[in-house]
Every structure is written in structure tokens, then in C-alpha cells.
Amino acid sequence: MCGRDPIDSAIRETEHLKKSFAKVELTINYDFVRRVGQKYFVSYKERHSFSRAVEFCSQQGLDLALPQNEEENIALTQFFGDVNKEAWINVNNKKAEGNFEADMNNRPLTFTKWGEGQPDKSIEATGCTMLSENGVWRVTHECFLNAYIICQL
Q1: Mean per-residue pLDDT for 52-81?
Q2: 149: buried, middle or exposed (CB in 10 Å: 19+, 13-18, 0-12)?
Q3: Quick check: pTM over 0.85?
Q4: Radius of gyration of the CA atoms of the chain, in A
Q5: What does the alpha-carbon distance between residue 37 and residue 41 come to, in Å, rounded to a whole number?
Q6: Separation of alpha carbons 12 and 96, rounded Å
Q7: Which helix (H) or strand (E) holds 42?
Q8: Residue 53 needs a FRET pair 20 to 30 A away by CA distance; which of 18, 42, 47, 103 works?
Q9: By the 8 A CB rule, do 104 and 64 touch?
Q10: What angle do CA 29, 85, 49 make, to 5 degrees?
């Protein structure tokens, strides 16, 4: 039994390295890449509607970005240039059953940075969440707006 531990450990390490390499390889083709811990945020710096943002990331095998801590939130704001300083993040009230306490995969939010008066609970139809240049989140019912698409892996 003890003879297998080094082999099992080596196999696990090899699998971990393969996954890490695959992540790095995926990031090569993007215009914007930020690594925070084990997470990568990537973008072609394109702007589109919320639904197109979700669809685009999904087509890449990724999720729409959702910061899990202040460091990730700051990393996403580094993406913005001189104009149009908003990006979609992976929160809307359609998937969260009328509130903004879960992401679009229905996982509870463990980090939020809502702006003053947010989330706007008066938005009863689908509302989508944007990250603004000052790092705060805000909900809009105008999910058709063109905001940056940033995916995560």
C-alpha cells in the first residue's frame, strides 16, 4: 500500500499540471487576461448585451465573470479603458428567483459590492448586474445595453 502513495501523488500532480497548462493555453488568445489566485479573467474587449455575454462565455466553455473577493473585483476594474466603464457580471434576478443573492448557477453569493441603493429590488422583470469603474455593482433592467464581456476560468 505504501508503495502506491508516491505514484498516486505523482499522478495527481500530473493531472493538476495538465489542468493548469490548459488554463494558461486558453488565455493566450485573449486581449485581456488577469490572473487572481487560481482564477483567470479573460476578454476580447468586446461589448454586447447581457444575454450575448452569457452566451459568448458559455460558447467558450467559460462562465461570465463574477468576483469572489475584493482582489478579484479590483482586477476586473483594471480592464476598463477611457470610456464605457461597465462590464456584465454573472448575477441576475431571473436565475436568483427574484432576488440578487445567488449567481446564475444558483450558487449563493459569498462576496458582493453593491452600490448605494443596490440591488434595486424595484426591478421585478429580469434585471442584470454591471460592475462599474469604481468597483461597485449595480442592477439594471436594461440588459440590452452594451457592456464589456469578461469571462472567467
Answers
A1: 91
A2: buried
A3: no
A4: 18
A5: 11
A6: 36
A7: strand 39-43
A8: 18
A9: yes
A10: 70
